[in-house]
Amino acid sequence: MISIIDYRAGNLRSVERALLHLGVTCRITSNPLEILSSDRVIFPGVGAAGRAMDVIKSLGLDVVIRDVVNNGIPLLGICLGAQIILGESEEDSTKCLNLIPGRVRRFPGSKLKIPHMGWNTIVLTQPHPLLAGIDSRAQFYFVHSYYPDPERDEHIIAKTEYGINFASIIGKDNVVATQFHLEKSGGYGLSILENFSKWDGRVR
Amino acid sequence: MLSKRIIICLDVREGKTTKGIRFKGNVDIGDPVDMAREYYEQGVDELVFYDITASSDDRGILIDVVNRVAQNIFIPFSVGGGIRNVDDMYSVLDAGAEKISINTAAVLKPGLISEGARIFGNQCIVLGMDAKRVEKSRYIPSGYEVWINGGRTPMGIDALKWAKEAEDWGAGEICLNSIDADGTNKGYELTLTSLISGAVSIPVIASGGAGKPEHLKDVFVETGADAALIASMVHYKNYTVDQIKAYLSGEGVLVRELI
User: Fold this and answer.
1) d(CA A99, CA B30)
2) Element holding A140 (H helix, E strand)
3) Is the entire prediction scored with pTM above 0.90?
4) What's the pLDDT tens digit per position in A164-194?
5) If you measure CA to CA, which chain B residue comes closest to A187?
6) Out of 3.30.360.10, 3.40.50.2000, 3.40.50.880, 3.40.50.970, which CATH number does the structure's domain A2-198 have?
7) Cβ A138 vs Cβ A121: under 8 Å
8) Quick check: is A90 catalytic?
9) Which residue of B has its CA nearest to A160?
10) Tell me, what's the ipTM?
11) Are B102 and B113 in contact (CB under 8 A)?
12) For A57-104, how does the pLDDT look when each residue is reduced to its tens digit (9 = 90+)?
């Protein structure tokens, strides 16, 4: 059973539909007992960091997510979920969950269109079980104005070029997160979701 | 590097995909859910469903279409047509759409853009804009005027000015339709597309006039368009998405090809 954490942040149902399509059992929930008793947890989200953290804290989910990580349950962050697992975000100057040390920064506004919206490639900086069977030319769907910037290179799994080279997949132990939308990235997005549905949380 | 997006527009009327010319005279051309699945398999990057009846009575039919599309298709898609308030936005997003396109309602009540952006995020709100070439004047200095109600009502508003304002109101993207080019199959309105895409810092989708793959190359090479909307060239099976992408790729335009 995969729990999709419900903090009223948009793309929950899209993630659920993708998992149902793959035949993976899942539920959308904000119940701590349900979340902590699941095999895997997905932490999705679209929208603004400040508002998201407010809701997470008001529901006590910050504590629950830390427990998920400490209990060794595989955790997958998607989009905003890949950002607020870092220490802090420049968006609304928000203190975040700090599961992985680092900051969330805004794309430098110059000639670049913001948001970074559309299909882009990723370049792996280290192997990860989630990326098994993914062609190096595969493209994924991004839509974001801020990007994850982990403090340590060891927490970067893949990078993507958009004006700058930013971390598009980050991870630490049983936590992994993609800035792009797995649920909207066609066949390869579904493949990564499927890999996650079988992942034991071990990197090596 | 970010790829240029190819977006297919499906005009939906009473649950059927329909196609008209210059906003007049429509013929039904298929089931939107089946067509969406076919285009998804061909490798389209995004879809737009435009509700051209847009009367509140038929809203339920569109929501059902959106729901069924969302169960089978795992790429972004947006819904436009007749969205007048946040409740309308919520219902299409909840049914599985990624983005909402607002056009007439945004012109009449720009606050709707910011309201939607605040609740759902800027990336959710696409400004649809129908623009028509006119004589340059004090009121329309760019020479392009905004029309609403599906291209039926001129507003006396300058298209360039409105694009910048919509960005300030919080639109995350602009879908720019040329009324002059729409339905002609003779190519996009490159001057208009350059003008608008060069003036805003949000992505711009070129729309209206695509008839062959060369037209997409022209709009990507000669303007700052981030995406191109197509309809009849694929609806009438003159081309498939993979053919268009193979051509563009050969011409040096970066696109997402199925591997």
Assistant:
1) 49
2) strand A139-144
3) yes
4) 999 999 999 999 999 999 999 999 999 999 9
5) B74
6) 3.40.50.880
7) yes
8) no
9) B1
10) 0.92
11) yes
12) 999 999 999 999 999 999 999 999 999 999 999 998 999 999 999 999
